[in-house]
Amino acid sequence: MAYEKIWSENPKLNKTEQKKLVKDGLKIFEDIPYYAENGFSSIPKEEWDSFKWAGLYLQRPKEDGYFMMRINVPSGILNYEQVKTLAGICKDYGRSVFDITTRQAIQFHWLTIEEIPDIFERLSAVGLSSAGACGDITRNIMGNPLAGIDPNELFDTSGIVKEVYEFFQHNEDFSNLPRKYKLSISTNVKNSAHAEINCVAFTPATKIINGEKVAGFHLKVGGGLSARPHLAKPLDLFIEPHQVKEVAVAITTIFRDFGYREKRHLARLKFLMADWGPEKFKDKVLEYTGTLPNKGEDALTGWNAGYFYGVHPQKQDGLSYIGFNVPVGRLDADEVLEIAEISKKYGDGEIRTCNSQNLIIPNIPHENVDELLKEDVFKRISIEPRSFIAYSVSCTGTEYCNLALVETKKRMHRLAESLDEQIALDVPVRIHMVGCPNSCGQRQIADIGLQGVLMRTKDKKMVEAFEIYVGGTLNEGGKFNEKLKGKFDTNQLDEVLFNLISYFKETKLPSETFFDY
Ligand code: SF4
């Protein structure tokens, strides 16, 4: 392809880029049947990273040959057959560990290469895929988990998310991007798809066009977390629903052709946006799309952080959706099966995943709600969870992740339970724990962010520790949390947090939130 010829002439291309020029990431799908037939030892070490394009990472320790698989769930919407299939795969192959990610995707662990072809077949039979869930490619597209049923959305975005997702799925014109690339598309006025931390976000807006009020989107570009976080910046454009795919393709083309490919840590779209600025970026988009109108009225009115606990009326008369807590995003396969059957028995079998790592059961007739809530599973998984477990998020950590410096999931779960035992608050305090600076658990937007580090003790031993950050939000365009001085070893962590939150409780005004404090 023409653009690949241009890259190949760049003498400073990094090693990953040189490798991608020789073999596109998606080609791994052609090799997997051979490797499955011949076992883990038949996979050359230099091929291990290529599995990312199939949504597969080798889990820690890599040499043991077990894979983590991430499955895309565009907008977080799963039908009954899909949920049953996911739970079945998880039970048969994944030792029953079912994780919901902060991008509404599902993750399995403990998979062997021999099992992958059958898993692919089972996913494909119900319209699911792990292609592009990892790697330098368009990742799962985040959306409003209430798309189509939400009284707080301008219009249903599920069809648009599907259209854009399907365009980029397995598309070799866009499978060699400089780095990972994240889109969100939502018209929920409470910013449920976390616009500002995505590379590209379509957000709700209206504009008077030819005397008529049109509902559509504004655009934010260049967000992303990791070690050098950026908040996406608005471009002065209004986009009608039928133009979303064209604009998404234009921006992805710009990223593919102008994104940086010399240094991996500077290859995200956020760095191109930071260098160009919104004006230049907008002009470049218009070179591809032709004229687009300037901004209209922004319809975002706050941020709900992706939480939907409790029973709420849908936009459809007579129907409710029910949001419930999945502690630190982890269920076992039997619980997922139980939830699927409950959703089918009382509603239509659908389940929605949230970027807060929780679940929603939609489409329950009002008269079925009370009976549904008497089901046993809701004794363990609450629609009214206690405050700290309700608002805790955790990444994978050392249990499975090769990049992790510390254990996270079990620690965050235990810490939240301990805080719930000791402190009662009238407002939520969102705590996010991550095992390294890559920030899969979105540490920067938490009220309290806990980032795992290693710390040298007085007797020169390296031990697990945490940095503490406070004051993150995506309200009003967003603000990342700021680091408190020092590092705290894991033995101190509970006490330090208890003291910090107790001080907040004692000195705050009634109803004052952690961010306003
Ligand atoms: Fe792994 Fe770091 Fe991501 Fe946690 S934040 S899952 S430790 S890469």
TrEMBL record:
Residues 61-125, 312-375 form the Nitrite/Sulfite reductase ferredoxin-like domain. Signal peptide: none annotated. Residues 135-290, 393-517 form the Nitrite/sulphite reductase 4Fe-4S domain. Its EC number is 1.7.7.1. Coiled coil: none annotated. It is an enzyme of class 1 (oxidoreductase). InterPro entries: NIR_SIR_4Fe-4S, NiRdtase/SiRdtase_haem-b_fer, Nit/Sulf_reduc_fer-like_dom_sf, NO2/SO3_Rdtase_4Fe4S_dom, NO2/SO3_Rdtase_4Fe4S_sf, NO2/SO3_Rdtase_FeS/sirohaem_BS. GO terms for molecular function: ferredoxin-nitrite reductase activity. Keywords: 4Fe-4S, Heme, Iron, Iron-sulfur, Metal-binding, Oxidoreductase. Belongs to the nitrite and sulfite reductase 4Fe-4S domain family. This is Ferredoxin-nitrite reductase. It comes from Fictibacillus barbaricus.
